[in-house]
Amino acid sequence: MMEREVCLWDSRRLNCSLTSVTLDASPKPLIPLFDLSSGLLVLAGKGEKGLFCYEVQPAQPAVVEVHQSFLETRTQGAAQVPRLALDVTACEVMRVLQLSDSAVVPISYLVPRKATHEFHKDLFPDCPGNVPAASAQAWWAGDNTQVELVSLDPAHRASPGFLSPCLPRLDQDSQHPPSAHVEAGDQAKHPDHSVGSSLSSPGSSLASPSSVAPSLPATSGFSSSPSQRSLQNILGPSSAFRHIEGVVLPRTTHITNLRGLSLTTPGECDGFCANQHRIAIPLLATGGQVAILELSQPGRLPDTPMPTIQNGAPISDLCWDPFDEQRLAIAGEDTKIRLWRVEPTGLQKQLLEPEVVLRGHTEKIYSIKFHPLASDVLASSSYDKSVRIWDVRTGRQELGLQGHTDQIFSLAWSPNGRCLATVSKDGRVRVYEPRQAAHPLQDGPGPKGGRGARVTWVCGGQHLLVSGFDSRSERQLSLHQAEALAAGPLATIGLDVSPSTLIPFYDVDTSVAFFTGKGDTRVFVYEVVPEAPFFLECNSFLSCDPHKGFHFLPKTACDVREVEIARALRLRQSSIEPVAFRVPRVKKEFFQDDLFPATQVWWEPALPATAWLKGANKQHRITSLQPKDMTPVSQAPKETPKRKYLPSSVYLEEKSDEQKKEELLSAMVAKLGNRDDPLPQDSFEGVDEEEWD
Known about the structure:
Strand content: 25-35%
Low-confidence stretches: 161-231
GO molecular function: actin binding
CATH superfamily of the largest domain: YVTN repeat-like/Quinoprotein amine dehydrogenase
Number of strands: 44
Mean pLDDT: 83
Main location: cytoplasm
Structural class: mainly beta
Keywords: Actin-binding, Cytoplasm, Repeat, WD repeat
CATH topology of the largest domain: Methylamine Dehydrogenase, Chain H
CATH class of the largest domain: Mainly Beta
InterPro entries: Coronin, DUF1899, WD40/YVTN_repeat-like_dom_sf, WD40_repeat_CS, WD40_repeat_dom_sf, WD40_rpt
Number of helices: 6
Domain DUF1899: 235-299
């Protein structure tokens, strides 16, 4: 076991270390960042999420642990910010910049102090400045002059400035700097003059020497361009769904008390499957048992055993028929595919006999997929390196595809139902047209790693999106043009290092793709576009614990009133919780027709299996998701913008304080007046004289 450690050596005696501290077990080296003034040592490892902070001192114990932090993203690199750039008013003693996959994250180390408005000399001793102590020629000649120390006290620091050590110093008395206000046209006429701007920031103001810093020439590239580029041109295109957020729905919608889940399903299987009404989950019990749970009955499951489907063989993959919500296809390791029928009210008793059994494969089956348009058409892949297409109504194999030389990781039907794409362990992506030929129509390079891969059609069926691994076992996404696979991927992006294969889900209405793997805690979200940069990153969904599976429901399960573009089921160790992916919008009372175009009627077949096998092609009809009581946001009445300031007439007619005081006094006098009304006690009746004692 390789353990990482920190050792402190005396440069005058290198035969042994003064002290050593053992950190953890990892083969990766650590990046050391040491601050000489404070004695803080920060250690960061590439591809890791942890940061170690130690204090190094000459006395024993020489290396003392200060803090250990865990970051949200993995570290690809780390750098230390100069001490002159620290925020001394906040007692910031060190700042580290973490380079992640998509951002640079500052990490500050602060010392808690009550009086933060005061400068703490004990925390911030004088440190080396930014003025060189000697030139290169002097150093070569043997000069060892040290850099002059400067104070970090804001009250003792000079005005900020910029001095390049590569330029000779100028005598302030002999040469005057040009004016700071020089037009671009004047710079062209007088090339010796330039804008004397100061390059500094409030948090990193540097002490300037008494000499004046020379100005930069006009041709140095610092002059402003006549045309101002927009922020989008600078940062690149961004997705309209970049602020998408994943929300776990209330606990009343969860299914809890799950027990005996099977965690040994192959990597080609999603782990479980669901349709709009029910869920099918493989169990750990012998005989390939599958539990059926109703989405309409959330809550705690009973402790007593539930009715299950007895498949008779270990399960390799399973999926629901999209056009028959009661039919479930289960592929077993015994080379058979069994189709089971569940009652509309759910599974009330043990199911022992399947409705149909498909036989033909000679080895274990990898995966199965129903046709997206034709009813009763099922495709399957097996260890025998073949893909077979079945008519489940008759139970016969109708078509067979050849050409694979190694294990088939995944297969996917095209949106128009004409083609079938596969990705295999031999590192090739293939596209077949099953009704035309048994050999691939297109063949091209795919992921190099042999740990697993998935493929799906995107961008209207013109491109293929493949998730897999590279040669270093890093998970990656690649986009291929379906009609030119031999040219290789159009774009490839790396995500992270993890052993599980990313399972893709693509929403055809929004072009948003979701990626996650079994055992992950994160769902990656990207908008896929057919032109560069091809992948537009959106907000990811993070969970507190790893999920055993993540399955997306059909589009009709989304709540459009909450601007929900996707809904998924997250399988945990003992529960199932729904997760809604929503886009923040202000006018939620209107139907967001820009996010919800007309969607396909996926639950109705476009044509039967016999017509498709004979060469017929047909598409789904489409329908609107707009509720009857909602108005499209494109037809919403335009609000008149509110004026930020009152008209000038209001300010001109505003009364002075004396006028307001006189009006107030007049109103009070008018209300009270000089009343001669009788007092209340005058209306009281007295008593007779005889009644007095």
